[in-house]
User: What shape does this take?
Amino acid sequence: MACSYNLVVASFSLFMFDIKNALLKMNSLASGSVFLFLSASPWVDIDLQKMLYGTVTPWSDFVFIYNILHDAGILANVEITNYELKQGFDDIETATSKCLQTYRVPAEKQGILLRYLQENLVEDDYGKLWFNRKRKMATIWWKTSK
Assistant: This one.
């Protein structure tokens, strides 16, 4: 007998190549509901994208997921909410290193990234640096037909 769960949840974790089959598997495993939490904001701040890459690439991964579900016959609900993403660093070097890796910054643009971080990181009373960014999150959910 196949496993079944009342609730299936995936939170900022849908990074697989065959997303359609992954979504269908989640749907088949849930006897009640499926909840997906996805970014509804660009992965790289728009100002930083302009500085680093000269262009802005809108990124709406929740729209792709919703469309895949719709094409598969699953009519899901979508709710967009605001939240603040806080990322802490011990020092500017660690912050720069992490962002260089995360954003795949070309070597000739590293100085731009460093200046951006110096202007946007906030130091707390204990010397820790914080990258506080306003974001949007999409909650996509549906009740299964079981």
Summary: The mean pLDDT is 91. The longest strand covers residues 129-143. The longest helix spans residues 92-103. Helices lie at 19-29, 46-53, 61-71, 92-103, 110-120.
